């Protein structure tokens, strides 16, 4: 089993909370991780129809079997259990008693918010971080970067050596046919698939719901609802603009990114790693990969850092602003393998505007050399996020 970076966080939380919930996209490794960390607990899959029927028809009797605790996999399939779990954990304050896993936030979160608020700690498990997939030697060569962007980091592809394009195609069919229909009544699945591809084509760009709706042939409200579905099921995430007014003419629209670069590459129609070398979306795809690694590090470590971007209406931009509490750290992301002065323009402009608020300006690029240039730390693309954003 490939070890996960969030293991220490989960162990810490199980020493503090009676219930820990592990959520994330399908196939991100939630079940494998829960069974590994809590091998001494009973494992109960609520995907099993017979087990689910018992839980729904007699929740008290069902939970009485697991007085010492258990791992309830796909817990959102039996929301009736949450209220009864509340009574059990309130009667005994023993920490780490129940572990819940769930793929759908729409199903898992309402039950937690209603019945287990204050009693449960949430852990978000995304696909592998680069350092999890390559714990001994990070990939470095440019060809290896293209392979990472193409293959993505979903565990089954690497655990079983599966062909990425085929696996992602099957994953999307399952996601659309099963999860989307369970979450919301999407009548036109063909239009939803088209919407997915259009989102991939806009990775790294400002969200324009009106344009998305027009290109997809749906209403603005439908586009908004579908984007929410993609966020909730951990397909995409929105990076908000920073709220502080360093320049009165700032952009106030979020940017769109994918949690997994391989899935985005598949939706873009990329069929081999070689096609990435000259593909028009290579830069935005690389940006999505790097910012996605930052997000994984935040979730895996329990970090409280918030991430933003900054852009003014004249085109000056910083890809990531990290709110560190003691200041804002600007991070620029460039896919090029050779450093040039244009890489630093956005950082220099923002540093001049921000003044003392700016701390540790950094650049992440597609090359393999560390450097220091004009007071800016330069990191190769495979650098662990914790070294860039400590």
Q: Note poorly predicted spans.
A: none
Topology as a string of helices (H) and strands (E): HEHEHHEHEHEHHHHHHHEEHHEEEHEEEH
Tally of separate helices:
17
Given the C-alpha coordinates, what overall shape results?
A: globular
Terminal-residue CA separation = 27 Å
Q: What proportion of the residues is helical, as a percent range?
A: 40-55%
Number of strands: 13
Number of domains: 2
Strand arrangement within the widest β-sheet reads: 8-9-10-11-13-12
Fraction of residues in β-strands: 15-25%
Mean pLDDT: 91
Main structural class: alpha/beta
Radius of gyration, taken over Cα atoms and rounded to an integer in Å: 22 Å
Q: Mind describing the biggest β-sheet?
A: 6 strands, mixed
Q: How would you explain this protein's 3D organization?
A:
This protein has 390 residues and is an alpha/beta fold. The protein has two domains: 7-124, Rossmann fold (3-Layer(aba) Sandwich), CATH 3.40.50; 130-388, no CATH class. Helices cover 43% and strands 16% of the residues. The chain contains 17 helices and 13 strands. The strands form three sheets. Strands 8-9-10-11-13-12 form a six-stranded mixed sheet, sandwiched between helices. It has a five-stranded parallel sheet with strand order 2-3-4-1-5, sandwiched between helices. A two-stranded antiparallel sheet has the order 6-7. Helix 5 links the parallel strand 3 and strand 4 (98-102). Helix 11 (189-201) crosses helix 12. The longest helix is centred in the middle third of the chain and has 20 residues, at 164-183. The chain is globular and about 70 Å long. The two termini are 27 Å apart.
């Amino acid at each position: 089993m490939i070890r996960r970076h969030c293991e220490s966080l989960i162990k810490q939380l199980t020493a503090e909370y009676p219930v820990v919930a592990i959520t994330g996209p399908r196939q991100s490794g939630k079940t494998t991780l829960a069974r590994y960390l809590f091998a001494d607990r009973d494992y109960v899959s609520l995907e099993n129809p017979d087990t689910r029927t018992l839980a729904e028809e007699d929740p008290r009797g069902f939970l009485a079997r697991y007085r010492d605790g258990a791992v309830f996999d796909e817990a959102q399939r039996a929301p009736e259990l949450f209220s009864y779990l509340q009574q059990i954990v309130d009667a005994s304050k023993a920490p780490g008693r129940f572990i819940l896993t769930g793929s759908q936030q729409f199903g898992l979160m309402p039950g937690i918010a209603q019945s287990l608020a204050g009693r449960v700690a949430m852990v978000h498990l995304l696909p592998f971080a680069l350092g999890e997939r390559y714990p001994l030697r990070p990939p470095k060569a440019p060809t290896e970067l293209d392979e990472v962007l193409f293959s993505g980091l979903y565990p089954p592809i690497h655990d079983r050596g599966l062909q990425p394009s085929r696996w992602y195609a099957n994953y999307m069919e399952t996601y659309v046919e099963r999860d989307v229909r369970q979450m919301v009544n999407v009548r036109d699945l063909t239009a939803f698939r088209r919407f997915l591809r259009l989102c991939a084509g806009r990775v790294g760009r400002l969200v324009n719901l009106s344009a998305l709706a027009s290109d997809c042939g749906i209403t603005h409200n439908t586009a908004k609802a579908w984007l929410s579905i993609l966020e909730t099921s951990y397909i995409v995430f929105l990076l908000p603009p920073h709220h502080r007014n360093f320049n009165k003419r700032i952009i106030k629209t979020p940017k769109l990114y994918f949690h997994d670069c391989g899935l985005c590459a598949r939706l873009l129609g990329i069929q081999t790693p070689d096609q990435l070398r000259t593909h028009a979306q290579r830069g935005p795809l690389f940006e999505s990969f790097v910012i996605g690694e930052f997000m994984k590090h935040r979730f895996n470590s329990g970090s409280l850092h918030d991430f933003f971007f900054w852009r003014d209406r004249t085109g000056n931009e910083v890809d990531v602003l990290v709110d560190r509490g003691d200041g804002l750290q600007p991070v620029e992301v460039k896919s090029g393998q050779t450093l040039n002065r244009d890489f630093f323009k956005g950082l220099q402009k923002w540093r001049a505007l921000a003044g003392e608020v700016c701390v540790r300006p950094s650049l992440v690029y597609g090359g393999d050399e560390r450097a220091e240039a004009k007071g800016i730390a330069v990191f190769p693309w495979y650098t662990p996020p914790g070294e860039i954003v400590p």
